[in-house]
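Chain A, query sequence.
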Amino acid sequence: MWRVALLVVLLALPAAASADPKGWEAVLTEVRHGPHGGILVTRAGQSLPKPAEPLMMLNPDDQVTARADARAVVLFRGGMTQTVTLASSPFMVRWSGSEPSGALKQTVLRLFGIFSSASIPQAYVSLGARSGGATSKTPATVLRFLSSEALRLDWRAGLSGTHEVRITGEDGLDWRSPAAMPPFSYPPSAPRLSPSVFYEVTVRSATGQVVEHRIVEVVPPAERVTVGLELAAIDGSDAPAPTKALMRAGYLASLRLLPDARRELETAITARPAEPSLRMFLGRVYESLGRSDLADAQLELARALTKR
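Chain A, predicted structure.
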C-alpha cells in the first residue's frame, strides 16, 4: 500500500473572493468591442473611465458604458445577469441586497473566488513509497476527474518517440501503457479507477525522462451528483451562452476538475472565438495544467481581442 506523505494543501482564495456585500458585487463575463466602440468602466468615486478587461471584478456603484456597437455582460453575485449596450449605458452596478439563493448560491460564491484570483488555487499531494520504503516522492498537483472515462493527460510535446504512461495507486494498481504524442486518453479496457483514491501518474519519454507527474483522483459518486445538479442550475439560468460556459468552467475549476473545465472552455471558444473572457480563463486553466505554452497563447489572444 502507499502511504500519504503530505496532506492536501490548498492555496487560499483571496480575501476579495468572500461574499461580503461591501466587496465585489459583479464581474464582467463578456466584453465585446465592436468595430466602432468599446466598453469602459468608471470606478465608484472616480471620474475617469478605463477600458474594460475580461473577468474584471466590479464594486457597487461602478459604471459600465458601452459605446456604439460594443456589448458587455455583467454577472451579479446574486446570479442575475445584465447585458450592457449603448441603449442601457451608462449602467450603474448597484447592490440590491439580495443574496444568491437556491442551487446557484454556492456556485456563484465559488465563481467570484475563482474569477477574482489571477491563478486557480491548486492542491498538492506527495505519495510516499510503498510500505517499507524510506523515501517520499516530490509533491505533485492533484487533477480530479468525474470518472475514469474522463481521464485525459496532456504534456508539453517536443520529445519524439513512444512515451510510457504509468499509473500506480493506493489500492495496489500498477498499470502501464505506451503512448505516442499527447493528449492521452485512459482506454476503456484499462482497470477502472476507484473514487476517492489517489493515483500517481508518471509519463516518461523513450529516454526515461519524466515529462509529466500528477496525482489524479476520481470524485466520489455523491459529489458527481452534486456537480450535475449545480451545472444543471447554471444551464437553467437566463445567462447568455458564453457566460453560462464561463460559469460552468469556473465551477469545475473551483473543484479542481481542470480537464473538464478545459473541455468546457475549448468547446465554447469554438462557437465564440472572439470572446476574450473565455480565452482569458482558458489561459489560467492551461497554466494550472502545466501548459504555460498554451496559456501564453490564449492570454495574448484575450489581450488582443480586448484592444479591438
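Residues 18-115 form one domain. Residues 221-235 form the longest helix (15 residues).
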